[in-house]
UniProtKB/TrEMBL annotation:
Keywords: ATP-binding, Cytoplasm, DNA damage, DNA repair, DNA replication, DNA-binding, Nucleotide-binding, SOS response. Gene3D superfamilies: P-loop containing nucleotide triphosphate hydrolases (3.40.50.300), RecF/RecN/SMC, N-terminal domain (1.20.1050.90). This is DNA replication and repair protein RecF. It comes from Gimibacter soli. ATP binds at G53, P54, N55, G56, A57, G58, K59, T60.
Amino acid sequence: MTARREDEQEMAGRAKAGPLDLAVTSLTLTRYRSYDRARLTLEGAAPLVVLTGPNGAGKTNVLEALSYLAPGRGLRRAALGEVSRFGADGPWAVAADLMLGDEPVKVGTGIEAGAAPGANDDDADEDDSGPAGRRLVRIDGETVGSTNALGDRWSVSWLTPQMDRLFIEAPSGRRRFLDRLVIGLYPDHSRQVAAYERVMRERNRLLADRGAHADPAWVGALEARMAEHGAAVAAARLEFAGQLAGFLAEPKGAEAAAFPEARLAIDGWLEGLMADGMAPVEAEAAYRDKLAEARRVDAATGRAGTGPHKTDLLVVHAPKDMPAGLCSTGEQKALLIALTLADARLVAAHRGRAPLLLLDEVAAHLDADRRAALFAVLSELRGQCWLTGTDRAVFEAAETSALFFNVEGGQVAPAK
Ligand SMILES: Nc1ncnc2c1ncn2[C@@H]1O[C@H](COP(=O)(O)OP(=O)(O)OP(=O)(O)O)[C@@H](O)[C@H]1O
C-alpha cells in the first residue's frame, strides 16, 4: 500500500477573453495513472490549451482523463481498472468544471468505491462496467444512471498517435472511429450499438451452444431484436456520413489550404441496402431473413456472418482520388485531421455546441504552415481544444490563443 500524497497541485493560467460553447475551467485527477492528485485551474476560457513536457511525463494521461467526459472507454480504450494509479489504495476519479456557454456544469466520473483497482476487466463488454467495478457519473451532484448521459449535452472528440494506422489496419478500428463520431452527433447511437452487440452475442452463444436444437422461436426473437437495433445503427451511420460529406467538401480558408478534401463511404451490407434506397423497415426485414438463413453456418462459426458489426469506413483522399490506406503517412495524418475538423464543424452546426477536442501529439507532425493553419482553425471553433507536445516551440503560432501548461515530475503547472 502506498501512502497517498495529499499535496494538491494548484495550477492557474490566464486565458484569452471570449465565451466558448464548451470549455473546461478546472480538472482534478485523483489516483489516475501517473497522478496521485492533480488539479488544473484555467482562468477564463481559452480556445486552446497546450500541455508540453518530456516523454512519459503524463500529458496523454490528462487528455485521456478528459476523454472520460464522454461515454465509452476513453481515448486509449482502457479497461476500467487499468487507469487506477498503480499501487494506490482507493478508486480513481476525474472531476471537471465545464462552461457550456455561460452555464457552469460540474462533472465527475470514476470507479465506484470498494472496487479493486487494477483488476483485470479486459473482457468487459460494456463501456461502464467490468470486474474492476462500475464507472459512475455525477453531473451537478446528481448520480446519473448511465455513462450515456455524458453524451446528451456535449461531445468530446480526439485524435491520438494510435490512430495513425487507422486506414491500414483492420476494419474494426475504422468502425469504432465511425461509431464514435456518430455518437458525437447522435448520442442515442451508443445505446443502439451496445444493444445490437449485446443481443448479437446472446444469439451467437445460443446457436453455438444448442446448434440445431436451439428453440427457433427464441432464436427468431433475438434475431428480430438484432435486426431492429442493427437497422438503427446502419441508418444512423448513413445519415451521419451524408451530413459529414457536406462539411468535408467545403473546407474554407486556412483549413482548405492545409488539409486535403476527403470523401467517405460506408461499406456494409445493411447500409448498402439503405443507400440503394431501401426503406429502413424493409432493410430490417431483409436482415432478419438473412440471419435466419445463416443460422446453420453461424452456429458452426459462433459468429454472425453479416451485419453492421462487419461494416467498414472507406476514406478517399479526394484531390488524389486515392484510398487513404495508399496515401503517405503525412497524408493519412492530414486526412484524419480533415475528418476531425469537419466533424467538429458538423457537431457545432447540428447540436449547437462545438465539441471538446483532444489532439494528442498532432502538431509536431505538421510543417510550420499546416501547424499555423491548424491553430487558426481550432481557435475559430467554438469548443476548446487541448493539444500535447514535447516541444513548446512547435506551438509558437498558438502563443496568443493558447494557455500553456508544463507537465513534468508528476505535476501539471502553468507555464510562463
Ligand atoms: N495505472 C498507472 N499507474 C501509474 N502510472 C501509470 C499508469 N498508467 C500509465 N502510467 C504512467 O504514465 C506515464 C505515461 O504517461 P503519458 O502517456 O501521459 O505520457 P506522455 O507525457 O503523453 O508521454 P509521450 O510524450 O511519451 O507520449 C508512464 O510513465 C506510465 O508508466
